[in-house]
Amino acid sequence: MNDNISDNDLIKLFNQNQLFRLFNLTVLEADTKEGTIKVQFDVDKKFCNPAGDVQGGIVSGLVDDATALAYIFQNKFKKRPPTIELKTNFLYPTKPGKVIGFGKVVKSGKNIVFLEGRLEQDNRIVVTATSTCVSVDMPQINFKKLMGENENNEK
User: Fold this and answer.
1) Superfamily holding 7-146
2) Tens digits of per-residue pLDDT, 42-78?
3) Are 80 and 72 within 8 A, CB to CB?
4) What is the pTM assigned to this prediction?
């Protein structure tokens, strides 16, 4: 991947990917210099517990995605941060529907990365999280193939 690719081009490229359709993840904003990202999830009610709240493990996965993507975007998809430890604070129940996620790279060293994030719903913070990750090389990705393009840039 080209180091000179713009934040907007990274967002466009990522949002074409079908991998994150399970929770309808869309990247809204990214700032690779600051190491921040804003994403939106649209969580289906099938992921709710009997009380009607999104199950806690699902919610932890959402905030983990938001924090990891801040690092992945900052590194232009050359590095990824497998999570060593994730601390999730559930402030309010998360309901099905639109959820806004924020991720931030707090500190990135040679091997260890510290990330933080939060989820908001209806203009209030419902979840906060911090994570410690290890920095590893991203496997080689054929972005054209991922986006459904052939060798001639046709879809």
Assistant:
1) Hotdog Thioesterase (3.10.129.10)
2) 999 999 999 999 999 999 999 999 999 999 999 998 9
3) yes
4) 0.84
